[in-house]
Prior knowledge:
Blueprint: H1 7-13, H2 16-33, H3 40-62, H4 69-87, H5 92-120, H6 126-152, H7 162-179, H8 181-184, H9 195-269, H10 273-287, H11 299-314, E1 318-323, H12 333-352, E2 361-369, E3 372-380, E4 387-388, E5 391-392, H13 404-414, E6 418-423, E7 427-435
Parallel strand pairs: 1-2
Antiparallel strand pairs: 2-3, 3-7, 4-5, 6-7
Amino acid sequence: MSDLPGVADVIADIPRHLTAIAEWGACLVYILIARRRFGAIGTILLAAAGLVVLVATQWWAGTLPLSLWIPGMLVAAAVMFGLILASLEVNPVGAGYVTARAFVLAELTASVYWQLDRFYAADLEPVLQTVLWIAVYAVVFVLAWWVERVTFGHGQVLRVGARELVGALAIAAATFAISNLSFITANTPFSSRFGTEIFYIRTLVDLAGFIALYVQHRVHNEAIVRRDADAMLHLLRSQHEQYELTRRSIDDVNRKYHDMKHHLDALRAEQDAAARGRMVDELEDSIRGYGAVVHTGNHVLDAVLTAKRAYAAEHDVQVSYVADGALLEFLRPLDLTAIVGNAMDNAIEAAARLASPDVRLVRLALFAQDDFVMLRVENTFDGVVDREGERIVSRKRDEGHGYGLRNIETAATAYGGTVSIDDGTEWFSLRLLFPRDARRAP
């Protein structure tokens, strides 16, 4: 193949509709992977509309002078952003992050095909050229889908922030600039004056950009996993330490009860009414604060509920319970503190947001139901529930929050239990159902 006559001729020869299809196909790869806003019919209609708009955009960009080539590509990128934002369950930051990846993938796909087409152009019939671009596009997109579905997680909510967006945009911009520099000017140390080299540089740089974005997301995922694991471990330890503290308080109550018998004997023996009164006052002061101890038949549950009732009292939240603690003897202490502790914390914090203390209510019920054990924690709340997809998330955004419900689900699942939630207008209900005498999965 002879060298191409010039940069302008090279650009003029690139079919705009193939660029549009590459951009559309790259968007479709991520739409098929990430969590979508709509069902199959809605997604198909959006995808069809996106293809029409991208083809029209590329046709319009093809009428622009060479000096406006980059603005034309930015308009096409904006259309890709709109298609992804409309199709996926993401915010604008997440849509921009996905668009950067889709844009680089589209550039890579188009450059791979165009390099092969230019090399074999003299030997292929038009029909075979069509077969070639369909085959190349299909192979590249299928490979990209197979690679990206592992890192993105099929159907998972995308968890990225401004830092990840800036990084992805920087990689995409650098990839696009370096790979297309030769189309703009040949008078730089990083551009080529020959058509075949232009295609080779573009393909190689686009591939490097795609790999860089892949690595960026893998590193981001690993950081999320480490942060989640650390936060969950911190919460579990905190709940267990709270249980140990409350258990020691209960032991103090038992010792106080033992001492009480001696105090009563002393009172009976005291003949002086004034001295007896002073002893009664001292005795009353010594037992003040010990009246909130819970007795359910399960010493771990007693400790947790005692601590949570004290925590609720500090926030003017009324807590009531009806519980047969013996039903949860199959739970390990750490799992029991994780489940009940997190459930009560969430309920108390939600009820405490209400303005009037009279309506700040939390109710716990633990009872047998046929061959199952039902644990239900209900609380009044303001009717506001934050979600990421189908998952309820904490309204606190600082580190260490947002993992309580996840801890509950993890612990319940280990025993074959199920978790269900009912968020009405006034009452929020968390229900856990366990098989009786369940055993923890290894």
